[in-house]
Structure prediction request, 155 residues.
Amino acid sequence: MRVRLSVNGASHEHEIEPRLLLVHYLREVVGLTGTNVGCDTSSCGACTVLMDGESVKSCTVLAVQADGTEVTTIEGMARDGDMHPIQEAFREHHALQCGYCTPGMVMAAASLLEEHRDPTEAEVREGLEGNLCRCTGYHNIVKAVLAAGKARETA
Ligand code: FES
Ligand code: FES
Prediction:
């Protein structure tokens, strides 16, 4: 099947197998390996990307379902060599250790902050509950997302 979609603002068109998952399309066909695969069974959130601005676990979406959409991956977050404010907040608040969950966390946070401009701690915890981290205990991740929300509110 043929798919045509935008990934991080660039158009892509490919002939693909109907059963190809979006995460594998992004990593293997488009060559963007920032999106990680943690579980492949929709449990961990490592593969989270934005599809038309909404966060989706890309291991649960077929690439053909993304036909005609705009997909944003972690590679699309920085601008002109500057980290996205959410990435900056993760760095500042030591919100990562091994970093494996981080791309998915940042994308889930981006979607959360679209919905709640300045979320409460409870809203952040609820918004990120589909994203697992084996290292950090979540505390600093929550702090980073709260700080990114505050920074946006005062910007
Ligand atoms: S790899 Fe998609 S949710 Fe874990
Ligand atoms: S930083 Fe290691 S899994 Fe989250």
Notes: The longest helix spans residues 139-154. The first strand starts at residue 2 and ends at 7. The radius of gyration is 15 Å.
